[in-house]
Amino acid sequence: MLSDYLPVALQAIAAIGFAAIALGLSVLLGKKGSHSEIKETPYECGMLPIGEGAPRFSVKFYLVAMLFVIFDIEVVFMYPWAVQFSDLVKQNGMVIWSMAGFVSILTIAYLYALKKGALNWKS
Asked: Which residue pairs, CB below 8 angstroms and at least 24 apart, start in 62-69?
């Protein structure tokens, strides 16, 4: 049973050995780079990097973005229902009530977000 894994073990040893030898030779034979303050600065399209790299965004920005994605996905769920509305009503009249329940849950979630101030940018 153990002899079945011998080719796999040999291949793993060969791969690890090749990687180690290649890395070792590159360290021994490769050029040593010169380090200076100018070379270590990040390149910003020809402009000198002054100040912080990226501006910090408020948590409100991410909160509004998440709320947008959540409510946008809900609209994606409504679109196929609206396209097939006439066929669905012919099959079962409960379709209107199921969508009314869905929209009421969305309305409650929206009112909750408003009450918590999730969409208020000034606070």
From this structure: 63/118, 64/118, 64/119, 67/113, 67/118, 67/119
Question: Among 107, 113, 41, which Cα is nearest to 74's?
Answer: 107
DSSP 44: B
Amino acid identity at 111: L
Cα(16)–Cα(12) distance, integer angstroms? 6
Global pTM reads 0.48
Do 109 and 58 meet the contact criterion of CB atoms below 8 Å apart? no
For residue 22, the SS3 value is helix
Residue 42 identity:
P
The per-residue pLDDT for range 1-56, each reduced to its tens digit, is 778 899 999 999 999 999 999 999 999 998 888 888 877 777 767 766 676 767 77
Token output for 106: 């969305």
